Amino acid sequence: MLAAIGVESLETLFDPIPEGLRLRSWDVPPGLSEMAVCDLIHRLASRNVTSHASFLGGGYYDHFIPAAVDALSSRSEFYTAYTPYQPECAQGSLQSIYEYQSVICRLTGLECANASLYDGGTAVFEAATMSIRLTNRNRVVCHPSLNPIYRQILDTHAAHLPIEIVDGDEPQDAACVIVQNPAFLGDVADLTTLAERCHAAGALLVVSFYPISLGLLKTPGEMGADIAVAEGQSLGLPLGFGGPYLGIMAARRRHIRKMPGRIAAATHDGQGRKGYVLTLQAREQHIRREKAMSNICSNEALCALRALIYLCLMGKEGLGEVAAHCHSKAEYLKSRLGRSGSRIRILNEGPTFNEFAVQLPRDASYVADHMLGRGFLAGLPLSAVGAGGPNDLLIAVTEKRTRDDLDDFAAALEAETCS
Amino acid sequence: MQLIFEASRSGRRAIALDALDVPESPFPKALCRAEAPALPELSELDVVRHFTRLSQRNFGVDGNFYPLGSCTMKYNPKMTESAAAERGLRDLHPHLSTIPVYEPCCQGALALVYDLERLLAEISGMRAVSLQPIAGAHGELTGVLLIAAYHRDKGNAKDTIIVPDSAHGTNPASAAIAGFKVIQVPSDKDGTIHFDAFRSVLNDKVAGVMLTCPNTHGLFERDIRRIADLTHEADALLYYDGANFNAVVGQCRPGDLGFDVMHFNLHKTFGTPHGMGGPGSGPVGVRDRLAPYLPGPRVVRRTDIFTLETPPKSIGKSSAFFGNFLIAVRAYAYIRRLGDQGLKEVSAHAVLHANYILARLRGAFTPAFEGRCMHECVLTAAPQAEKGFKALDIAKALLDYGFHAPTIYFPLTVKESIMIEPTETESKETLDAFCDAMLEIAARIDKNDASLHEAPVNTPVGRLDEVHAARTLDCACL
Question: Least CA distance to B76: which residue of chain A?
Answer without folding.
Answer: A80
